[in-house]
Amino acid sequence: MLLYLALPVMLIIAGILSYWYSTSLNQAVMQAKLNLSQTADTISAKVNEETQLAVRTTEIMALAQQNGLFGDREASINFVRAVLKMNPSFVGASFGYEPNADNQDQAYINAPSLKEGVYVNQTGRFLPYWHRDFNDSERLLLEPLVDMESSLYYEGVRQQFLRDGNTETMITEPYVYEGRMLVEQSSPIIINDKFVGMASVDRALADITEFLQTIKQQLKIDVLLLSQRDNVIATTLNHSGLKTKAILDTDYASIAKQLKLQGQEREILSANDPFDSGVFYFDKAKVATGNWTVIVRRSEADIIGPIQAQFKPLLAAAFASVLLVFLLFWYFINRTTKRINIAIKSVEQLANGDLSIHVQKYMTQNDELGTMFRSFERLIKASKDIDQVCSAIAAGDFSKTVSKRGPYDRLSDSINLMSSKRHEAEQALVEQTIELRRTQQELVEAEKMSSLGSLVSGVAHEVNTPLGVCVTATSHLREMLIETKNKVASGSLSKTQFSEFISEVDLSCDILLKNMQRAAGLISSFKRVAVDQTTEELRNLYISSYLNEVQKSLYHTLKATPVDITISAKEPELEVYSDPGALAQIFTNLVMNSIIHGFKNGSQKGQISVHIDYSDSVCIHYQDNGRGMTEEAEKKVFDPFYTTNRAGGGSGLGMNIVYNLVVHRLKGQIFIKEKQSTGVYFFIQFPLTLPN
């Protein structure tokens, strides 16, 4: 009987091994080709990323010149140095002006050198070139560019623009300089449709060569990197005479031509390598920026070899396994019945709540397997009950419970307890949320009334000054009047004394009138602002005029600080229908925020600029030149209770109130815009007309 089993088993094993060998070989070749193509794409993407960085950098340098940097030679030198310092892969960066393009050449003919070097030629032409010291890459050197009229990086870009108006960045062919492979990217500087110079960076290709060597070590894949003119830029092949040569002038010309004839289609090429014996697979990928080409190769022997090495021991193991099968067959026949009984006991335990397996079609059998499957069905039903209860809990229904299935069922107790605890937690969460919202609203109202209280205190102090002057003038006038009446009664009043009395009366009346008008103006401004802040009525107003009224009400606070506020608007200014109370609160909070945080509680001199612009909506540009905000503060500035001045009594509600007023009261939006210097820049936008 065992003999009849041996022959079929051996045939089956032989068939399995043959099928495995064929399938593994095909899969290995297919996977290797796929990896080869993916590697080519990865290298192409890496090279393209580095080239795009250099291209974008030169374009940014040219844009900087075109947007205000042109002619500022000192700033331009510092800009080039910063570009080179921030990009380790760049070995040089430069600007080159046309002769006397900025009308400053004459002034620099005999100018002394800078500490780092010179940056003009003998005619004073602006040609700064920052480059890394070949012996110390951290050291940056400055010198003037040379051979401008014969170089592709300058004259090539210039002729390209003069010929057809092309302003694209030019990427030169790579070349070897001081033992390193370099490539240059140059962008023209165009001002008033006139070529005035170029911006350029030099990039070393050493990092790409190291990257290619890493690919070779990890994947056993060799790489050839070709320039736009099909010159070899970098390679992992250990064959001298390839680098910097045209690929069509090497022994790889035939393979390169076949790959090039494929065009945009991708097909793995199988060919004999001209240097290394054996069949190799080749593929190519294009580098979008610079129009370079990546060619990769891998040996067929490296792919098939591991499969063949695995097959021999497997074949020996297969024959050894036949003998083992015979022994195991006898062993398992004697163990089968015992294992089935053990399985039944295990299933009975699982039916009490440990695990669930569902095989329903064997339930009608009356043997041990039938008993096991009926136990499985019990477990399935229990699992469904648990699923229904858990689904109800997830939907917020805590009325359902799980029935206990047996003395070992702890799961049902845990689920019922979880349901009860979650119900209690959700009820507590609802109550805490209501309380938190009420507390937050009270804090917001307290912040608002605190602001109004500060306004009242400041206005009262300012009104007290002109009223005090009025009291003094009135007292003086009364004394003069009593003295004059006495002289009239005694008949001793002279004409000169009467004239002096008239002059004093006129001067006192003038003082009284001016100071009473000043007090009336302060009270009028305070009345308008205070009424607006304590009501939510909408009305027509000119925003710049209204903000000036609010500024007057803040005079007591602002006069103690060296901070100037400038409010301007686009002419002609439009009348809007909006919420003046919200505008006053927003303006007050922004100003106080700048004074406290931007100007160190008003101890530093500064400038606040508010400009109102109009399009389809109202646009308010609020800027200060204070200390500005950190990156974390910018992200959390509108969060409630977030403050960087907790020790100084800050509540963290000021900017949150601003956000809520803009979004909810004015139906608009507010966000922080990027700025060119220090300070903060808030942009506020809301409709010209608010609905009632």
TrEMBL record:
The chain crosses the membrane at residues 314-333. Pfam families: HAMP, HATPase_c. InterPro entries: HAMP_dom, HATPase_C_sf, HATPase_dom, His_kinase_dom, HisK_dim/P_sf, Sig_transdc_His_kin-like_C. Signal peptide: none annotated. Its EC number is 2.7.13.3. It catalyses: ATP + protein L-histidine = ADP + protein N-phospho-L-histidine. Residues 334-388 form the HAMP domain. One of its GO terms (molecular function) is kinase activity. Gene3D superfamilies: 1.10.287.130, 6.10.340.10, Histidine kinase-like ATPase, C-terminal domain, PAS domain. This is histidine kinase. It comes from Pseudoalteromonas undina.
